[in-house]
# Entry
Amino acid sequence: MGMWSKARELAEMAPPERNRWVDFLRAISILAVVFGHWLMAGLYVDEAGALQRGDLLDTADWTHWLTWAFQVMPVFFLVGGYSNGVSWDATLRKAEPGQTGVYRDWLASRVQRLIGPTFPLLLVWAVLAVVMTQVGIDRGEIRAATEAALIPVWFLAVYLLVTACTPLAYKAWKRFGWLSFAIYIPLAMGVDYLRFAHDVPYISFTNFLWVFLGIHQLGFAWRDGKFDNRLFAALWFAVGLAVLVSITVYGFYPVSMVSAPGGFSNSLPPTLALFALGVVQVGLVLALEPLGRKMLDNIGIWTATVLMNGMIMTVYLWHLTAFVLVMTAVWLGLGGMGLGPVPGTGEWWATRPLWLGIYILALLPMIAIFAKNERVFGPIRGGRTVPKARVVAGVLLICVGLAATAGVTIASPDGVTGLRIWVVAAPFVGAALLGFGPIYRPSNRKEVQE
# Structure
């Protein structure tokens, strides 16, 4: 049975009470990130025949506004809050009185969906880095390739930390309601104040938690029906947009919501501006929910959504690998053919549909190879219960390893292997502490994506 047929079968079995808009937003937000990356990264060959990196945001200032549409990580955290709230609430209802290890088992199941698809990517690029080092490729070029291909994993480290906070965050929502969201606004503002006014080092990285925990909290509010009044959702959009415009166009923060030349980044680490964008996006997508859910009554659109959600981590993790491999093949194999237009020019835009099609074709074999394995790595059942200290250490090691992979890369400037072995090893050691390993399950056609 083909992938579409399987997805169609799963789509038809979805219970009527399922909020399909959640699944659609998860899929569309990842696709926005993928196509945004493919558009932003612009390599070209200059008049001297040298390969140059021409970031679209550098060559066309007006494209900074496009990042308000393509930087949709806040939407993914909104969906994460909704899904984690559903999952944790169901876990609490099913738990026996006095049962131990409830949180531990729940967290292990959530971690599985994040790190399982990540390990093949890390292993492939670790092997490539070692091979490229041994054949004498310049280490700077190896670093550039690994950095470009593995930068998406930063998101997984943050999302894992936010997910680990779900029980406390959910309890805070049930007890304090909107205040449990509002507290993150002054926290994010305070961090930016200390960062920019007093140059306090490293404090900015705490905004990875404050900004995304705040948006995650809105997922609980959505699930509890707080946004059912669409005028209320539209008000969130309007107020958020007013704040965003005032602090970017007329204020201190850059318009671009991703790293761009000529200013600091609003996303790495997050700032108050990204928080405001998140509020804008939350208001917009929840105001559109009735129309969206009606659209998803169409079985074709709903099947496509189910299909995408079944391979979502593979698409996200491997899309820049596809880009790197295409660019490498074009440069080394075809002498840079087709890379003449400078990013942002009319000729460059005219060729984008063709190049996007090529990137998709390059990604398809990776989906075929790795998507089916998204659920073959996870907590081994029937073994000894993992102590809490090991769970904490395991999660932290995974996060440190993934953050280092995106931040310092796995490629080493020295050493025989050309590899930062500790960076690659950290997520695997963390998974081992959690009691994870290869698990092979028969296909369950009654399963629908969470």
User: Anything to note?
Assistant: The radius of gyration is 22 Å.
